[in-house]
Amino acid sequence: MTSTKDSNPGDLPVGQHWIEKWPVRTAEGVPDVDTQSWSLAVTGLVENPLALSLKEVQELGAIEIVRDFHCVESWSVPNNRWKGVPVHRILEMANPTPNAHYAMVRSPGGYETDLPLDVLLQSDTILAWQRNGEPISRDHGYPLRLIVPDLYAYKSAKWVSEIELVGEDRPGYWEERGYHRRADVWSGERFKEDTI
Ligand SMILES: Nc1nc2c(c(=O)[nH]1)N[C@H]1C(S)=C(S)[C@@H](COP(=O)(O)O)O[C@H]1N2
Ligand SMILES: [Mo]
Questions:
Q1: What are phi and psi of 20, to 5 degrees?
Q2: SS3 helix, strand, coil % of the chain, rounded to 5?
Q3: Which of 24, 130, 158 to mutate to test the pocket of ligand 1 (most atoms within 8 A of CB)?
């Protein structure tokens, strides 16, 4: 799926309000992160399963995107300049098999979120380690957090350690607790029943 809208920074989605200070929202507690031994695994329906170090990920060619960040609780943080690697670069190395249609993106503490493969392949879906020129803090997901700018932020998993390619969609942590499977900000897909 692609988003229903090409958003520009500064566009405020329905039901959202701007805030200045970036809050921390963590369901599972901040994991112990050793950046030396950190690895990102790409598993499941792929020709080449991967285990990449942080350095290997960072050397895949970082880009910067400036996008707003929208939590389903209604706050939006404007104008974040994220630096990271587009997830499609990593998936091209892993080479998903033709029956891979979704992915489960996981953090070590048990948080997970499900995303369609085509969302992960979008050019502005990135694994980020910097915001506004500074390393993202540990609370906010260092060393690698997903940024999917047009979806509510519960899709933007922090401390990403595994991307598992799967054939069938399964609900992640918040998706199991009543939140929308797709979570498109511009269609207001907050809760399971908010179908378009
Ligand atoms: N691992 C993990 N990732 C997560 C969450 C979480 O609890 N654990 N919360 C999600 C939600 S609901 C939001 S709003 C954003 C918040 O990111 P922040 O804490 O950097 O503001 O992270 C998302 N990613
Ligand atoms: Mo959130």
A1: -90, -50
A2: 15, 35, 55
A3: 158
For ligand 1, atom 21: residue with the closest CA: 24
Kindly state if the Cβ of 31 falls inside 6 Å of ligand 1.
no
The gap from C-alpha 31 to its chain's centroid, in whole angstroms, comes to 17
* Cα–Cα distances in angstroms (integers) from residue 65 to residues 6, 23, 83, in the given order: 14, 20, 7
Tokens 């990593």: give the residue.
90
Q: Is the CB of 25 under 6 A from ligand 1?
A: yes
Over 174-189, what HEC string results?
A: CHHHCECCCCEHHHCC
Q: How confident is the model at residue 73 (pLDDT cuts 50, 70, 90)?
A: very high
Q: What does DSSP say about strands 162-166 and 102-106: parallel, antiparallel, or unpaired? A: antiparallel
- C-alpha distances in Å from residue 13, one per residue of 24, 166, 193: 21, 31, 19
Ligand 1 centroid distance, CA of 43 (Å): 22
CATH for the stretch 34-187? 3.90.420.10
Are the C-beta atoms of residues 157 and 145 closer than 8 Å to each other? Answer: yes
The DSSP secondary-structure symbol of 180 reads -
Domain boundaries, the chain: 34-187
Q: Is the pTM of this model over 0.85?
A: yes
Q: Tokens 């910097």 belong to which residue?
A: 130
Q: Which atom of ligand 1 is nearest to the CA of 107?
A: 1
pLDDT in tens, 150-186: 999 999 999 999 999 999 999 999 999 999 999 999 9
